[in-house]
Write a structure and sequence with these properties.
The complex is a heterodimer of chains A (153) and B (290). Helices cover 33% and strands 14% of the residues of chain A. Chain A has a five-stranded mixed β-sheet with strand order 2-1-5-3-4, sandwiched between helices. In chain A, strand 3 and strand 4 form a beta hairpin. The model of chain B has no long low-confidence stretch (mean pLDDT 96). Chain B is α+β, with helices and mostly antiparallel strands. Chain B has eleven helices and 14 strands. In chain B, a hairpin with a 6-residue loop joins strand 13 and strand 14. Classes of the chains: A alpha+beta (153), B alpha+beta (290). Chain A: Its EC number is 1.2.7.4.
């Protein structure tokens, strides 16, 4: 089937999409956007988090066909040209990246949190990131990054 | 595989009548896992996310009709005052990403004994509304769960909404898991006070082939509160009453040993959850019905 979807502000069309395929597969394998990561494929790890119509979701749990005529924003769509989003800057500054695999999902989840709650407390940060796993166990630096991004708002 | 994309409920019901083998998909939090892992290859997917009727809630007299496709996040944000028990259970579902997509309709459709919404639906006297091109039916939650992942839905029917009386007295929900997020319940429990009927609702999840009401516990506590006149003038509950209530809740369950916990642990944990949640609910009970 054909899926017609706006990704990062750009209209994209994919043909011969398998009906049981996930939005994550569509983004990575058909639209050339490998920022969203594929790990658990069951909504447990958050590495594939993207915005779907402005709401953060696990793209592995969205059928590609459900994104038809909808708007998707991936981690690739957060930066403004060469200028990184403040959340991305904060992850770099705080050293909140080890292997980097979980980073795109965490950046999107943190980006959403700060858009909703500009100055979150620690419990709010922890709750907002509860669906994102980091197996390098770098959570402290990640929390630092979110606090840093909030402090610069 | 076919991908069916109805824009209205009428169209969705017509498609389900033509294609009873089509698997409904809303948030995808169960269906996509089965597809991703090759556990299921349905002949068709029926995408319900474009059916606006399923994504709304409204107040109808004393009850609230929650569309089957309203995600948990919206139940938490918009219905916490009217449906406190359901909102509480919704807060324990998965993670923010999962709550943004997952729906009560999906919980009912999957009918997993571990679904977080079930115990609350049972104690809050919820009625499940289902529809087909043949018409609509209302099924009490107590009659909806028939077996492990098996519900009362006919092959041509879709779950359209769940209807619950707006809460007029405290409700509580609690579940046990290894951490706060992303946990499938080891066991769960809900309690609701119904002072206008001099009755208590109690139900367990993830501790029997289906979610179920703990009837003996309900009758014991309802009788105790009525006999001692505590609906009108509540006093702190005796420990012996809370303990007996917990024992009867544990007796109602018929759990198994599995990777998430042993049957013995589940029974013990249920008695603790029942005692605690009853304590919280009773603490908040003002002694008259709003």
């Amino acid at each position: 089937m054909r899926v017609d979807v706006t990704v990062n502000g750009e209209r994209r069309v994919a043909d011969d999409v398998w009906e049981g395929e996930s939005l994550l597969f569509l983004l990575r394998e058909r639209l050339g956007l490998p920022g969203s990561k594929n790990a658990c494929e069951q909504g447990e790890c958050g590495s594939c988090t993207v915005y779907l119509d402005g709401v953060p979701v696990c793209s592995c749990l969205v059928a590609a066909g459900q994104a038809h005529d909808r708007e998707v924003r991936t981690v690739e769509g957060l930066a403004d040209g060469e200028r990184l989003d403040p959340v991305q800057e904060a992850f770099i500054e705080a050293g909140a990246v080890q292997c980097g695999f979980c980073t795109p999902g965490l950046v999107v989840a943190a980006h959403d949190l700060l858009a909703r709650v500009p100055h979150p407390g620690d419990p709010e940060i922890r709750e907002a990131l509860a669906g994102n796993l980091c197996r390098c166990t770098g959570y402290e630096k990640i929390l630092d990054a979110v606090r840093l991004a909030a402090s610069k708002r | 595989m076919d991908f069916l994309r109805p824009d209205s409920l009428a169209e969705a019901l017509a498609l389900k009548a033509q294609r009873p083998d089509a698997v409904p998909i809303a948030g995808g939090t169960d269906v996509m896992v089965e597809l991703n892992f090759d556990h299921r290859r349905p002949a068709a997917l029926l995408d319900l996310t474009r059916v606006e009727d399923l994504r709304t809630w409204d107040v109808d007299g004393d009850s609230v009709r929650v569309g089957a496709g309203v995600p948990y996040t919206r139940i938490i944000e918009e219905l916490g005052d009217r449906l406190p028990g359901l909102a509480m259970a919704s807060r324990t579902v998965g993670s923010p990403q999962i709550r943004n997509r997952g729906t009560v309709g999906g919980n009912l459709g999957a009918a997993s004994p571990a679904g977080d919404a079930h115990p609350v639906l049972l104690v809050a006297d919820a009625v499940v509304e289902v529809a087909s091109t043949r018409g609509t039916r209302r099924i009490a939650a107590t009659d909806f769960y028939l077996g492990v992942k098996h519900n009362a839905l006919e092959p041509d029917e879709l779950i359209t909404s769940v209807r619950l009386p707006a809460a007029r007295a405290p409700q509580q929900f609690a579940k046990v898991g290894t951490r706060n997020a992303m946990v499938i319940a080891v066991c769960s429990f809900a309690v609701a006070l119904h002072p206008e009927q001099r009755r208590v609702g109690a139900a367990v999840g993830s501790a029997a082939p289906t979610p179920l009401r703990a009837s003996a516990a309900e009758e014991f506590l309802s009788g105790e509160l009525t006999a001692t006149g505590q609906w009108e003038s509540p006093r702190p509950l005796l420990d012996s009453v809370k303990r007996r209530f917990g024992e009867l809740v544990a007796e109602a369950a018929s759990p198994i040993d599995d990777v998430r916990g042993s049957a013995a642990y589940r029974k013990h944990a249920l008695s603790v959850l029942a005692r605690r949640t009853l304590g919280w609910a009773w603490q908040d009970y003002p002694g008259k019905v709003a």
